[in-house]
């Protein structure tokens, strides 16, 4: 199991925290695996803004019919019990 620290825009972070966004589209340059943890950290294109949340990858869609070459769609679940700052 790996831990991936990833930037996320504040507007998408709010949707993750509220539970309506349960996926990420990412370049597959980190060898993501089901069971890996992702720490999503808010970033406003200039700096980190302090918010973060812990998630666990539960599904990976890596089908060229649906994903751009080199990209994956990562399904995840929140792990608020592992801490976070929900700004």
Automatic annotation (TrEMBL):
Record domain ASCH: where: 6-79
Q: What SUPFAM superfamilies does this protein's entry cite?
A: PUA domain-like
Q: Name one Pfam family in it.
A: DUF3850
Q: Spell out the InterPro entries in the cross-references.
A: ASCH_domain (IPR007374), DUF3850 (IPR039440), PUA-like_sf (IPR015947)
Which named protein is this? Answer: DUF3850 domain-containing protein
> Which species is the source of this protein?
Faecalibacillus intestinalis
């Amino acid at each position: 199991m790996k831990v991936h620290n990833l930037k996320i825009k504040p507007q998408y972070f709010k949707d993750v925290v509220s539970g309506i966004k349960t996926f990420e589209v990412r370049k597959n340059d980190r060898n993501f695996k089901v069971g890996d943890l992702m720490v999503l950290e808010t970033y406003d294109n200039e700096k980190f803004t302090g918010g973060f949340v812990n998630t666990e990858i539960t599904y990976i869609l890596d089908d060229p019919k649906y994903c751009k070459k080199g990209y994956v769609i990562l399904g995840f679940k929140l792990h608020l019990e592992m801490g976070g700052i929900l700004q």
